[in-house]
């Protein structure tokens, strides 16, 4: 008798996540982007991560707005752009994301 596994591996779980992302789920798109950023179940690829994060952000998903801002701020998968980082942080902050609000406050501080 074959015993069922309680948990899927990163590689096994990415299949369903990829399907949901391709069908337009903003949550799945963001999670898939995070997988590509970290190389969990997929090869690490910041360009592909940026692609999926951008799709999620275009659906007005606050977490994706913040994450996209972080990608722009760090130059991950896209050229560093503090103006666009601030734009995406602002959109997330307007939806109540407390971390995005902190990012905006930090960006407003003069560099010392």
TrEMBL record:
Q: Where on the tree of life does the source sit, at the highest rank?
A: Bacteria
Task: Extract the InterPro entries matched here.
Answer: Mitotic_Regulator, Sel1-like, TPR-like_helical_dom_sf
Q: Name one Pfam family in it.
A: Sel1
What SMART domains would the database entry show? SEL1 (SM00671)
Q: Which residues cross the membrane?
A: none
Designated name of the protein: Sel1 repeat family protein
